Every structure is written in structure tokens, then in C-alpha cells.
Amino acid sequence: MTIWLAIGLTAAGCYLLKLIGLLVPAGALERPLVRRLSALLPVALLAALTAQQTFSSNSALVVDARGAGVAAAALALVLRAPFLVVVAAAVAVTAGVRALGG
């Protein structure tokens, strides 16, 4: 029963949040600061999710092969490699570190 209560509260909260978003005046959304922040928000959320998934395990901070893979991907991005090369570099470095026992 508790799970259904949580699901219902989450659904109601999402609906209310959507309703509040529709009630915001259009003029408030056209301000330059709001436009800049809305453009940067997805990048910040993706970076936070990536960091959380890379450096945590069961609510503990860990540094393992995943960190090396992210570092390799970041280096490939700095060198302006194509996306598939970035992913391949991350996979290869992560697998290599894990194979070496890390």
C-alpha cells in the first residue's frame, strides 16, 4: 500500500509542477537570464548524473575503472574526436583498467 501511495503522490506532484509551469507568464520566460539558464540546465543535470553514476556505489564514494574511462572520454573530447571514438576510448580504457585489476 505504501508503494501505491508514493506513486500517487509522485503523480500528483508531477501534475502540479506541470500546471505551475503553464501558469508562468510568457514574458517571464523571455528574459535573457532565464533563457541562458534554461540552455545550461540540461548540461548541468547530465554532468551531475554522470558524476553520481561514475563515483558512487551504494552511497559510498569510489574511484575505480569508471573514473579512468570518463577521463579518457574527456581527453578524447578535448582532442575533438568523433563521438564513436570518444565512446570507444572510454570503453577500452575502462576494460583495460578492470583487466589489470583496478
Automatic annotation (TrEMBL):
Transmembrane regions: 6-25, 37-55, 67-97
Keyword Transmembrane helix belongs to the record: yes
Keywords on record: Membrane, Transmembrane, Transmembrane helix
InterPro entries assigned to the protein according to its UniProt record, in alphabetical order: Brnchd-chn_aa_trnsp_AzlD
Protein known as: Branched-chain amino acid transporter AzlD
Source organism of this protein record: Streptomyces gobitricini
Superkingdom as given in the UniProt entry: Bacteria
Keyword Membrane (UniProt): yes
Pfam family, one: AzlD
